[in-house]
Amino acid sequence: MKNIIDIQKQNLINLFKLIKENPDLPIVPMVNYEIVADDCSMYWMASWGESRIDSYCIKDERVWYLSDDRDEIFDHFFEMPIDLSAEQEERFIENAVSSLPWIKAIMVKIELPN
C-alpha cells in the first residue's frame, strides 16, 4: 500500500506532466466541499488529488464536466424531440451537449488532507 507522501508525489508528477504536455491549457483547481465547510479560518489545509484533462462549462450556477454523464447534462438543458430512432436520439444528444460553451482545462482535485 502506498503511503501518503508517495500518493502526493505521484499526483504532483502527473499534474506537472499534464502542464508540460498542455502548456496552453488553464489549470483549474476543484476544491472538495468538505475542505471549506466553515469560515473559522483564513486558510484551509488540503492535499493534492488527481488531475486530468477535461472540459467544463459554467451554466445555471453549476460547473458541468464533459466527462460526467452526458445524459444528465442533456436532460438539464434540452428536451428530446419525439419519434427519433435510437441512432437519431444518440446523435441529437451528442450535438446538443457539444453545443454548450465547453472550456478544455487541466482539472486538479484538491482533497481533504491525508
Textual characterization of the structure:
This protein has 114 residues and is an alpha+beta fold. The protein has one domain. The protein contains three helices and four strands, in the order H-E-E-E-H-H-E. The chain has a four-stranded mixed sheet. A hairpin with a 2-residue loop joins strand 2 (47-59) and strand 3.
Structural features:
alpha+beta; four-stranded mixed sheet; 3 helices; 114 residues
Which stretches of 5+ consecutive residues score pLDDT under 50?
A: none
Structural class: alpha+beta
Overall mean pLDDT stands at 89
Total number of distinct structural domains? 1
Q: Count the strands?
A: 4
Q: Using only CA atoms, what is the Rg?
A: 18 Å
Strand % is 25-35%
How many helical stretches? 3
- Please estimate the helix content: 25-40%
How many angstroms separate the termini?
Answer: 14 Å
Return the string of H and E elements: HEEEHHE
Q: Strand order across the biggest sheet? A: 1-4-2-3
Shape: elongated
Largest sheet: 4 strands, mixed
Give a summary of the structure in a few sentences.
The protein is α+β, with helices and mostly antiparallel strands and 114 residues long. The protein has one domain.
Q: Which helices and strands occur, and which strands form pairs?
A:
Blueprint: H1 4-21, E1 27-31, E2 47-59, E3 62-65, H2 70-77, H3 86-98, E4 103-111
Helix pairs in contact: 2-3
